């Protein structure tokens, strides 16, 4: 197992480099980069140059200059101002040099500073992390705590009326996008057209520090109720059906028939023999569910409920072409996904010692 872990760790290096390299190349061809973002503001507000550039810069109302012609809207700007912008954002260096410096800094977890926010990228991530952690952890806990027992029950009662009506509810829930369901919940319960039972924005109330110790968790979950319900739909349906199908496949196997023939009751057969084998495929889906819950799955929900987390931070960074934040979040979540995948494999071997990745042909 030690050799397998070492091999997986070594494979992470070219994998993360490949992910970052592809993203870096795509960014080079994306229009509207940070230089263009500043130029569009400078051409509309001449006195904002000093706010963007530490060294200042004068807006020249002259003719077009070839030095700035490679940027949209740069005609008429002083070439020295364009050069300062390129130096400020690091575009005065060749792309290969910029990529090499970025990866060297990222290896040391030095993510630099935001282009358009007066703070470091790491501080921004730390600031937004509590919201994403709150959403991600509780979604995983709720979805797995409900979906696994429900999936087992549906497998045991396969074909019954309980299985049919729960499947209908699950399929409908899966078909409805989480953000549409979130909007529906806002209309119904957050001061829309009906009731005003839940808050519309934020993770806690403005007077959170003034609340008593027992009021704080109530306030916290009061704010999280609607976002968690919205986000749980897709993961709830997927995990439930995955668990059900996995248990049905295992129940039909010969070792289950043998266990029953030995006189074991259904509970002993189900949880003593079937459970370990059936849960392997559920565990295999954990890494993607983990990453989705912490970032991609909460993007729209964070915007709808005005929760300032990593998903919203990443979205706004892409829109504003704040590349340090874009690449830093991509690097962190890619690295996190690779490590979670390795942990998932190790859990495989813990649940079923018969699985030996080290002897598997690569």
From TrEMBL:
Looking up Gene3D superfamilies in the UniProt record yields: MetI-like (1.10.3720.10)
- What lineage does the source organism belong to? Bacteria, Pseudomonadati, Pseudomonadota, Alphaproteobacteria, Hyphomicrobiales
Which Pfam families does UniProt cross-reference here? BPD_transp_1
Which InterPro entries is this protein grouped with?
A: MetI-like (IPR000515), MetI-like_sf (IPR035906)
Q: Write the record's keywords in alphabetical order, separated by commas.
A: Cell membrane, Membrane, Transmembrane, Transmembrane helix, Transport
- NCBIfam families referenced in this protein's UniProt entry, alphabetically: PRK15133.1
Q: What is this protein called?
A: Microcin C ABC transporter permease YejB
Q: Is-annotated flag, keyword Cell membrane? A: yes
Q: What PROSITE patterns does the record tag this protein with?
A: ABC_TM1
Which PANTHER family is this protein grouped with?
INNER MEMBRANE ABC TRANSPORTER (PTHR30465), INNER MEMBRANE ABC TRANSPORTER PERMEASE PROTEIN YEJB (PTHR30465:SF66)
**Predominant localisation class:** membrane
Q: Which family does it belong to?
A: Belongs to the binding-protein-dependent transport system permease family.
User: What is the recorded membrane topology of this protein?
Assistant: Multi-pass membrane protein
The chain positions of domain ABC transmembrane type-1 read 129-344
Q: What is the superkingdom listed in this entry's lineage?
A: Bacteria
Transmembrane portions of the chain:
9-30, 131-152, 164-190, 220-243, 278-305, 325-351
The protein's organism comes out as Rhizobium mesosinicum
Q: Where in the cell is it found?
A: Cell membrane
